């Protein structure tokens, strides 16, 4: 921590007029210094104002005068030597004061720095404020995950309470688990905070940006986030950007709202065209920014990937959750891989554009706010079961070359408050950043 101090200033102003002679202009005690020379009327004469001739031509001498030692013509030289010695003393004192002041300043700075280091030691050493790229590594963490799903705390409208220092801490931890993260939206300046944190920490991290599109709002949410994302890209460029995802479960929400069952029906395709309009607008925006090479994709529930939407993007992301499919935790890893390959990857392979496919979300909850959702009918929401899913999915998916974003980095209290059940309890870490009672698999991600 940089500590600022108001250094004390030493006033070095001194009277350097050089008046070192002895003189008396009025009757006074002459016990100190030369005794005055009597003039008429018993008054003392001003020795400094009288000329040398006036002082000695009339025969007056100070009682201490020793004519054998000091001739008349040597007295002025003696006075000059006294004056020079006095000036030398003053100059010496000034130099001494300056030296002492310099020493005091140096000591103050050293002590201040020592105190500053003590402040850092007393604080959370996972973050060094002056250089966020210097932080302690946790030996219990391993870069085993292909990617992580992440939303900075406080990134929901209208509150927007996210903070750069919190995002920096998150990036420092996540960089020890993965080299890839995905975001969901662009509100509350979250994208800029994440990219700024990556720049400051100097970690190897690629981000898939997100625009959380909303059906039936006349593109208002999309446009608001698009403008923020454009400004962020203009500021930070694409060095740490893997793609821009337009829409998250847009088709799931649209089909549900319309009471439809077939995601590729003509009625469902009306919703798909709303989403495609925003996807194409993003593509055009990037072309206008000379960023046409940045991939544009879409994310949705694994069972709601629309063919028209997927045909219009460079990549697709699919949420594949064994918990919501009522699969036992012991079978969840195999089920997740099979579902993704047979349903989503197969669909992409059948399209002429062959979009790259990712698992956008998969994981296991560790808690439910209410007893009714404490299990999925077969397996409990618990840290022990999260450990089983980690042990059976992560390294195996890496070996199989499956691209996935594990859901998720930390618990999200706002989801629990809004939706209840297991919604807020999917994190590897709790909302305070403490790792749950789990062991991170130790294998290298692709």
UniProtKB/TrEMBL annotation:
Basic and acidic residues: bias regions: 1-17
InterPro entries: Beta-glucan_modifiers, GH, Glyco_hydro_17
Coiled-coil segments: none
Membrane-topology annotation of the record: Single-pass type II membrane protein
Key words of the record: Carbohydrate metabolism, Cell membrane, Cell wall, Cell wall biogenesis/degradation, Glycoprotein, Hydrolase, Membrane, Polysaccharide degradation, Secreted, Signal, Transmembrane, Transmembrane helix
Catalytic activity: Hydrolysis of (1->3)-beta-D-glucosidic linkages in (1->3)-beta-D-glucans
Family: Belongs to the glycosyl hydrolase 17 family.
Function: Glucanases play a role in cell expansion during growth, in cell-cell fusion during mating, and in spore release during sporulation. This enzyme may be involved in beta-glucan degradation. Active on laminarin and lichenan.
Protein name: glucan endo-1,3-beta-D-glucosidase
Species of the source: Agaricus bisporus var. burnettii
Lineage: Eukaryota, Fungi, Dikarya, Basidiomycota, Agaricomycotina
């Amino acid at each position: 921590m940089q500590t600022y101090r108001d250094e004390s200033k030493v006033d070095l102003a001194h009277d350097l007029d050089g008046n070192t002679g002895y003189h008396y202009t009025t009757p006074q005690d002459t016990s100190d210094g030369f005794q005055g020379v009597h003039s008429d009327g018993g008054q003392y004469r001003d020795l400094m104002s009288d000329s040398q001739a006036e002082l000695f031509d009339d025969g007056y001498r100070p009682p201490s005068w020793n004519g054998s030692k000091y001739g008349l013509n040597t007295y002025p030289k003696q006075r000059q030597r006294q004056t020079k010695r006095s000036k030398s003393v003053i100059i010496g004192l000034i130099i001494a004061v300056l030296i002492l002041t310099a020493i005091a300043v140096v000591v103050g700075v050293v002590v201040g720095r020592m105190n500053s280091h003590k402040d850092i030691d007393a604080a959370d050493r996972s973050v060094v404020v002056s250089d966020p790229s210097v932080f302690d590594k946790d030996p219990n963490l391993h870069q085993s995950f292909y990617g992580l799903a992440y939303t900075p705390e406080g990134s929901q409208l209208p509150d927007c309470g996210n903070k750069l220092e919190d995002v920096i801490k998150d990036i420092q931890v996540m960089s020890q688990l993965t080299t890839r993260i995905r975001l969901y939206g662009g509100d509350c300046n979250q994208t800029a905070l994440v990219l700024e944190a990556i720049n400051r920490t100097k970690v190897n991290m690629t981000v898939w940006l997100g625009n959380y599109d909303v059906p039936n709002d006349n593109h208002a949410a999309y446009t608001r986030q698009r403008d923020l994302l454009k400004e962020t890209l203009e500021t930070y460029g694409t060095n740490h950007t893997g793609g821009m995802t337009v829409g998250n479960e847009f088709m799931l929400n649209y089909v549900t709202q319309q009471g439809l069952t077939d995601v590729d029906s003509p009625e469902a395709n009306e919703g798909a065209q709303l989403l495609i309009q925003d996807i194409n607008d993003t593509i055009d925006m990037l072309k206008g920014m000379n960023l046409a090479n940045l991939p544009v994709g879409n994310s949705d529930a694994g069972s709601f990937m629309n063919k028209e939407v997927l045909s219009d993007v460079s990549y697709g992301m699919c949420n594949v959750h064994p918990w919501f499919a009522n699969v036992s935790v012991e079978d969840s890893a195999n089920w997740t891989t099979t579902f993704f390959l047979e349903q989503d990857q197969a669909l992409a392979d059948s399209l002429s554009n062959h979009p790259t496919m990712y698992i956008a979300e998969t994981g296991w909850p560790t808690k439910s706010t209410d007893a009714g959702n404490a299990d999925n009918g077969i397996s409990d929401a618990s840290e022990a079961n999260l450990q089983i899913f980690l042990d059976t999915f992560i390294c195996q998916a890496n070996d199989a070359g499956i691209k996935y974003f594990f859901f998720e980095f930390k618990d999200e209290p706002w989801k629990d408050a809004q939706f209840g059940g297991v919604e807020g309890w999917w994190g590897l870490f709790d909302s305070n950043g403490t790792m749950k009672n789990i062991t991170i698999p130790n294998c290298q991600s692709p």
